[in-house]
Amino acid sequence: MDPTQSQQLAYIAGQAADARVNVELETDEGMVLNLGPQHPATHGTLRIVAKLDGELVIKAEPIMGYMHRGYEKLTEVRTYPQVTALINRIDWLGNFANEVPFILAAERLMDVEAPPRAQHIRTILFELSRISNIALFLGDMAVQLGAVTPVFLAFRDREHVLNQIEAVTGGRFHPNFDRIGGIKDDLPAGWIEETHAVMVKMRKFCDEIEDLVLGNEIFQARTRGIGVIPADVGLEYGLSGANIRASGVDWDLRRDNPVGLAWDKVDWKVWTHPDGDSFARYWVRLQETREATKIVDQLLDTMPAGPIMAKVPRIIKVPAGEAYIATENPLGEMGYYLVSQGELTPFRVKIRSASFSNMSIAPWVLQGTYVPDVVTILASLYFILGDIDR
Amino acid sequence: MISTFAYELSYWQQTVLRVVGGLVAVLLPAGSFVYLYLFKMMSFMQSRLGPMEAGPYGSLQLLAEVGKFAQKEDLIPERADRMVFKLAPYVVLVSTFLMVIVLPAGPDMLMSNFDVGIYLALAVSSISVIGILMAGWSSANKYSLLGSLRATGQLIAYELPLVLAVVGVVIQAETLNLQGIVFAQAEGDIFGWGGIGNPFIFTQFIGFALFMVAIQAELTQPPFDMPVAESELVTGYLTEYSGMRFLMFFIGEFATAGVFSAMAAVLFLGGWYVPGIDPNSDWFNLLGPAVLFGKMMLVSFFIFWFRISYPRLREDQLQRLAWKVLIPIALVNIVATAVLKVVF
Questions:
Q1: CATH value at residue A364
Q2: How many CB pairs under 8 A join A and B?
Q3: Of A218, A275, A281, B278, whose CB is crowded by the most CB atoms within 10 A?
Q4: What pLDDT digit, counting tens, does each position of A201-242 carry?
Q5: With an 8 Å Cβ cutoff, are A148 and B308 in contact?
Q6: Residue at B41 is within a domain
Q7: DSSP summary character for residue B4
Q8: Residues A193 and A47 in one domain
Q9: pLDDT 10s digits, A22-73
Q10: Which range of residues forms the domain containing residue A3?
Q11: Distance from C-alpha of A326 to C-alpha of A337, rounded to nearest angstrom
């Protein structure tokens, strides 16, 4: 059923009215501090309107959408192979991981399965993008708390991982490498040994961060007990990824929702933390980075031989149908709900991005905190603006 | 003032020398901190090179920075209190210059041999609070206001440990005169052995630690940099400043770091004195400033090391640290020093 133009206009007007209700905070009594859209703590264009009593936050409201790029709509006018070029810009730090669920959803509708070697390489690149993404978080969180050095270490060591991604895909940030039925190219010569060496470096980086940041008394004083999210509240708000695992919920889509990638072929562990505070979220992500290096190491050692591309038609038309595939992306659950009507382009793509849901808990968790804690909590929830606004 | 060269200077010559000396004492530490510590040491600790293009190893980067700030438009917010806004950086700088007055750099190399020197220095160091409050209040900016109120609370809270940490030294040296404190260290002895004098860091190590923590907070350097917490308050009370006025705040911050480090060197490390030379010798009028500068760089190395590696505390944690930890320790230290002074 096609919505008429008047229905669409009414919808837009309703959304605009909602936005105005949120901003109405400004007319209340008390000092209103407007964090953003341009603010160092939001590393992007997130805006937080906080009503303050002294430095105590009475009420805070995130306002999103300053960087909306309309990817869901744009995918409807792109052919399936073109879509990956768009969607790996959603979470720009976890580049390759964005492409995988979409391709998997398309593959499911076409009833194609990528050969084992392609699945292996996909999983490796997926984990590499996780490492490069979370390594930056580990440094950035410290910057939000005022320590300038860790982020430079993070940038330094992330570069090794990006080099490996670039060696395979040709792009540091936007690989556009995943194809329906497999991947674009095979691994270059000598890549496996190099990647092993990089994984050793990343483990050393994790140890360094553990010494420099996690063990620091001031860091612990600033994060322990700050922004506590109980498991049930977190689930109600739809948190996912490390944010919910830090609340003690043992839930990881890599293990719990096998989608054909190679995670079930290697030995690894899902880390959880019972506390649910900012420290727990940081700790879980640090362990996750270590675990990801182990996954990559094992996958490199068990790399199967064979083709990297299944047989797919030259012009890809996805049969009519619907599919939802979600994977455990660096930021949390990322899913694509793909509706096809058997044409060259998707009919509708709904992107379930992790940061959007993770940010929705902000008003709940920011209430009653102090201004410095707002920054701590936002940093520990770890959002990427592109992932919020799409 | 200068008897080394065997002739007396006339009044105006002394005045000129004092003005030049004051300028050097303020600008030289500020420049060397920014280049050596902020540009280079910080870069090496963060595995990068820092400025390399302007001059050999980027040594002319400072000039480039000053030139950049000089070119910038002097923006004043529309709703700012213009006069207070313009005046604030001067107030901050004045407190730095006033502290230099009593700082001895040699037997005769000092501006004023003031009998309550340390008292004056600690008193005028608080003037900068007024400047910061002026800057924050007049900017008509919520971030500035929050930042300046944080700064005020912080600086007032940390005045007390700062003063109390010095009291131990004063008891031991039996004088408030900074020159007298240097001589007390130079002519003192450790259980009868006078080989290196008696730098008070050996007896007043608790006082030294407290003093270092307190000046870190007074300078609003991390881990005590909530007033300018850049991830929360943009840059706190500096948010609306640009161009030369920002540069003046910047110089004020680093020059104060230099003066406080020099103060720590005078109080705890023997000031301009090095063992082996008679402290009354004229040589110290030449050697003294260099020695003091070296010791100051040593002390400030730690200040900047902490600055680079630590995250910042929260405002309430900072106040708790001052009132519940530092001040009780300082009081115990004073009592212990007094008792030991009577016993020995």
A1: 3.30.390
A2: 81
A3: A281
A4: 999 999 988 888 888 888 888 888 888 888 888 888 888 888
A5: yes
A6: no
A7: T
A8: no
A9: 555 555 566 777 777 777 766 777 888 888 777 788 888 888 778 888 888 8
A10: 1-66+358-390
A11: 9
A200 and A269 fall within a common domain: yes
CATH for A178:
1.10.645.10
Last residue of a domain, one of A288, A313, A338: A313
Q: Which of B42, B231, B310 sits opposite A216 (nearest CB)?
A: B310
Exposure b/e, B164-201, CB count within 10 A at least 16 = b: bbbbbbbbbbebbbbbbbbbbbbebeeeeeeebbbbbb
In this structure, the answer to whether residues A135 and A284 fall within a common structural domain is: yes
- The structure's pTM equals 0.83
Cβ-based interface (< 8 Å): residues of A facing B: 31, 33-34, 39-41, 55, 142-149, 152-153, 156, 212-213, 216, 218-219, 221-222, 370-375
Specify whether A161 is located in the same domain as A236: yes
Name the residue facing A218 among B142, B234, B311 (closest C-beta): B311
Q: In Å, how far is B341's CA from the nearest CA of chain A? A: 36
A208 chain-B contacts, CB cut-off 8 A: none
**Pure H helices in chain B:** 11-32, 42-45, 61-71, 82-100, 117-125, 127-138, 142-173, 178-186, 205-218, 243-268, 283-309, 315-320, 327-343
Domain match, A131 and A259 both: yes
- Asked if the structure places residue A4 within a domain, the reply is yes
Asked if A13 and A142 sit in the same domain, the reply is no
CB contact under 8 A, A152 and B48: yes
Say whether B229 and A372 touch across the interface (CB within 8 A).
yes
Looking at the complex, report in whole angstroms how far the Cα of residue B64 sits from the nearest Cα belonging to chain A: 23
Residues A148 and A297 in one domain: yes
CB A130 within 8 A of CB A111: no
Cβ within 8 Å, pair A146-B223: yes
Same domain? For A207 and A276 the reply is yes
Tell me if A237 sits within 8 A of A193, measured CB to CB: no
Minimum distance, in Å, between the CA of residue A145 and any CA atom of chain B: 5
In a domain, B155, yes or no: yes
* pLDDT value, residue A200: 92
Q: Determine the average pLDDT of the residues in B255-263.
A: 89
Q: Considering its fold, how many domains does chain B have in total?
A: 1
Q: Which of A313, A344, A378 is the last residue of a domain?
A: A313
User: Does B223 sit behind a cis peptide bond, omega within 30 degrees of 0 on the bond before it?
Assistant: yes
Q: What ipTM does this complex have?
A: 0.77
Contact yes or no for B257/B244 (Cβ under 8 A): no
| Token couple for B153 | 């609370």
Other beta carbons within 10 angstroms of residue A232's beta carbon come to 10
Report how many domains make up chain A. Answer: 2
Domain extent for B121: 75-343
Q: Cα distance from A154 to chain B (closest Cα, Å)? A: 10
**Could you tell me if residue B57 is inside a domain?**
no
Q: Indicate whether A384 belongs to any domain.
A: yes
Segment A278-303 mean pLDDT: 90
Establish if A134 belongs to a structural domain: yes
Report pLDDT for A19.
58
HEC-encoded secondary structure of chain A: CCCCHHHHHHHHHHHHHHHHHHHHHHHCCCEEEEECCCCHHHCCCCEEEEEEECCEEEEEEEECCCCCCCHHHHHHHCCHHHHHHHHCCCCCCCHHHHHHHHHHHHHHHHCCCCCHHHHHHHHHHHHHHHHHHHHHHHHHHHHHCCCCHHHHHHHHHHHHHHHHHHHHHCCCCCCCCEECCEECCCCCCCHHHHHHHHHHHHHHHHHHHHHHHHCCHHHHHHHCCCCCCCHHHHHHCCCCCHHHHCCCCCCCHHHHCCCCCHHHHCCCCCCCCCCCCHHHHHHHHHHHHHHHHHHHHHHHHCCCCCCCECCCCCCCCCCCEEEEEEEEECCEEEEEEEEECCCCCCCEEEEECHHHHHHCCHHHHHCCCEHHHHHHHHHHHCCCHHHHHC
